[in-house]
C-alpha cells in the first residue's frame, strides 16, 4: 500500500483502438496484482492434461511416458510376457494426479496398443479419431446443458505424440495417412522412436526427409505455423519446427556412469562416454536420455511440459474444439440424447481453420458411409 | 529382481508398524543385546505376515538381512524398502546401488539420489490397503526416523484436494518439503510403486522421481493471460453529484474526461466509457458505466429499469456470442459488469427506499459493493452507527451483496478483516494538498484536511485493496460462474429448452433447438404459402381490371373511329359542296367576264363611234 505518490511508474499508454482511448496513470494502482490472483486461483483449481501416444507396439511408447513424467505412468510390457497383441486397435486410458511444488496436474494418458500391428491396417485410425471426437462430444454436451457445472471436466486430447519407427528412409504410407487425418483434429507431435538405432547423421537425414514429406502432404504438426501470434512466438516456434520430429529414446532405468546416476540405456558396444578408450565388450556404456548430445528427449519434454503445455491446451480449446463444434452444430441429423452420446461411428473431422486439404471432411464422410 | 508387473498384496498397516518399530529398535546399538529376542519377534511377525498372504518381497528380504547379516547392513542403506535409520533424520543419500542390491529393488524407478532433490532420505513404500473394490487408498509411509508420527499426523489432518486418501498420499508426497533437508516435492517420495490395474475411472496419486517441470504451468497460464489482456467493467450507481466520477479518477489515479451531468435528465440512462490502462506488462481494458440522472426525477418508480436492462443486455450479448455456431470467445470483448459500486448518500440515518429497491433488483445480477460516498461529512461515531444500520437493513431486506471470498488461505484473512468495514466510507479527490513535506490526495477544508489515502480518515484504501488488488479476479469469476449462468439458465428455460423432458430422459439442447427450428421453418413456409396465394389472387384481380380497362379502351377507340369517320364524311361533303360552289362561281365569273369583255368591246366601239362622231362633228 503506497500512501503517497511515487515517481511515475513504468506505465504507459498504448496505441489502441479508437474506441478505447489509452489513459496515463499517475501512480501505482495495483492492477498487476491480478496476475497473482490468477496464479492462486489456477493453483487451487489444478490443471488437467490429456496426452495420447500412438505408434506400433515395441516402439517404446509406455517407456517414453514414464520417462516424461518420471513416474510409473504406464506399466511397460516386457517381451516374453504372455500378452497377446490385440487383434483390433484398443484405446486404454489411465488417469493420475501428480503434484510438483504445489501445482497439481491431473494427467490422463491414452495408449493405443494394436495400432498398425495387423496385416491389414486399413482405417486403423478410425477408432482413434472416434475417441478424440468422442471427447469433444462429451465436452460439447456438457457445455450446452442448461444447468452446467462450474468447471467442465476436460477430457479432450490435448496432444497426440506419434511414434515414427526409425526406418531411416521416410514416412511410410500408414504414417502419412494417419498424420493427414489427425493433424486437423488434434495437435500432433511426431517423434522418431528408438532413435538409438540411428547415428547422428542418419538421424538428421531422416529428419529432413520426414520434414519434406510433411510439407509435401501439407501436414501441419504442432506448433502450427498459422497460430503464431507474434514475432517472438514465431521465432521460438521456428526453432522448434526445425527440429521436429525429435529423435527420442525412452528410458526409465537409472544407471551409474562415472559416479553419477543417469537415466539411460546400457549397452555393450562402442566408445566409452568421456574417455575415448574402447576396452572391450565387458565395458558397459550408457546412453543418457537427458543428455542433449545423445538424444533429443529434453527438447520433447520441454516442448510438451515446460513451455508449451498451456499453449497445447489453448489451441485444442480454441481451434480444434471449435472446429468440431461448428461441424457438429451444422449437421442437424443424428442428435444424441443428452449424455447418451455414445456414437462411435467416426464423425467426420470438421473443416478446419488451418490450411490443408479440405476434402478430408467429405472424404471421411464417405469413409463413414462405407463403414 | 522384481518386474514392474508384480503386484504387492496389501500389507496390513499394523504389521508394517510393528515391523518398523522393531527394526528401529534393532538398529540402535544398545539394543543389540536384546537382538535375538527382537529378531525372533521379527521372524514371528514375518510368519504371521506370511500367513496373512503377504507377498511383499521387499519386506521379507529386509528381514532376511536382519536375521542373517550384521547390523552393519543397515548402515549401507540398502534400498530394501526400509530406509536407513539415521538418528539425525537428516538427508542420507542412498549410495549407488550395487548389482546385488538392484535385484532387491522394488521398482525400476529409484529416486535421483544425488540429484538436486535429496530424495535419498525418504524411501516411501506405498502400500495399498484393500478397501472395497481393491481400492484406491494409498498411504505414503515413511519408515524413516521419526517420520512415522509425522506421517500419521499428517494423514490424520487430511488435506485438501481430491477425495480422502488420495489426497493424503499426494499430500504426504507434497509435504516432502516440510521434512528437513528435502527439497522438491515430487522427488521426496522416491520409491513410488504405483501398482494396481489401471482403470479408466480410478484416479491415483503418482509420486514423481524427478523434476518434471510442470510447476511452470501457472506461469505459462499467466503469460498467456497477460498477452491477451484483461477486462474489467465497473458500474457506478448513485445520485447525480454524489462523487462517482471523482471516485473513479481517484481509484485509478488518472483523469477520465467527463463533464458533470445536469440534474435535468428526464430518465435514467447509462453511459459507458472504455479506457485502456497499462501497468508494467498488464493491460487492462476498463469500462466504467455511469448512471446519469439517477435519483433526479420526481417519479423514481422506473429508475432501476434501465440499469437492469443494461446488465441484461450485456449478458445477452455474451450469450449470443456463446451460442453462435462460428464463435470466437477467446478474443471477445467482455462487457458484462463485474462489479457494481452502489453509492449511498451520507445522510447518517439509513438507506433510502430508492436504494433498497434498486439494490434488491440488482443483487442477483451483479456483484454489489455498497459504499458510503462523501464520507467526510459524517462524524466518526455517526459513521459507525450508520454502517451498522445500513448492514442490518440490507440483511433484513434480503439483499445479497458481494461477499469477499474467504476460502482461499492467502486472502481469507484480509478479506475477513475488510468485510467488517462494509460499507466502505470513501472520499474521492483528485486534487493534491501538501501535507508535511509530501503531496497527497486530499480535500482541504477551513477546519482541516481530509486525506484520501489515510486509513484513519476514510476507507478509500480498503476499497482499492478489495476491489483491485485482492479480488478483481474473483469478481470476474463470480460474474461468469454465478450471475451469468443464472441469466443463461433463465433465458434458455424461457425459450423453452429443458435438460430433461417429462419422462425424465435427458433432452439435448440441440433437439429442442431443432424442434423449434423446424416449427419455425414450418411457420415460415406457411406464411410463404399464404403470401403466395394472396399474390396470385391479387394478380388475378389486377388482370381482370386490366382486361376491363382494355375493353373500355377498345370501345372508346371504336367510338372515336366512327366519329372520326363521320366527321370525315361531313368534311368531304362540305368539300364537295365547296367545290361545286367554286365551280359555279368560276362559271359565273367566266360568264361575267365574257359579258364584261363584250360590254367593253361594245363600249369601246361605242366610244369610238362616239369619238368618230365627235370627230366627225368637228370636222
From TrEMBL, chain A:
The UniProt keyword set, sorted, is: Cell cycle, Cell division, Cytoplasm, Cytoskeleton, GTP-binding, Nucleotide-binding
Where does it localize?
Cytoplasm, Cytoskeleton
Report the residue ranges that make up the Septin-type G domain in this protein: 45-331
Q: Name one GO molecular function term.
A: GTP binding
Q: Which SUPFAM superfamilies match?
A: P-loop containing nucleoside triphosphate hydrolases
Name a biological process GO annotation. Answer: cell division
Q: Name one GO cellular component term.
A: cytoskeleton
Residue ranges of region Disordered?
A: 1-20, 349-371
State if Nucleotide-binding is listed as a keyword. Answer: yes
Low complexity bias spans: 7-17
Q: Name one Pfam family in it.
A: Septin
Superkingdom of source = Eukaryota
PANTHER family xrefs: SEPTIN
Family as reported in the entry's similarity comment = Belongs to the TRAFAC class TrmE-Era-EngA-EngB-Septin-like GTPase superfamily. Septin GTPase family.
Q: What does this protein do?
A: Filament-forming cytoskeletal GTPase.
Its quaternary organisation is: Septins polymerize into heterooligomeric protein complexes that form filaments.
- This protein's name: Septin
Automatic annotation (TrEMBL), chain B:
Biased composition of type Low complexity is found at: 591-606
Compartment(s): Cell projection; Cytoplasm, Cytoskeleton
Q: In which domain of life is the source organism classified?
A: Eukaryota
Keywords for this protein: Cell projection, Cytoplasm, Cytoskeleton, GTP-binding, Nucleotide-binding
Q: Where is the Septin-type G domain?
A: 228-494
Gene Ontology molecular functions: GTP binding
User: Where does this protein chiefly localize?
Assistant: other
**One Pfam family cited in the UniProt record for this chain:** Septin
Instruction: Cite the residue spans of the region called Disordered.
Output: 588-619
**Listed GO CC annotations:** cell projection; cytoskeleton
Q: Where is the composition biased (Basic and acidic residues)?
A: 607-619
For this entry, the protein name equals Septin-11 isoform X3
> What species does this protein belong to?
Acinonyx jubatus (Cheetah)
- Gene (UniProt): SEPTIN11
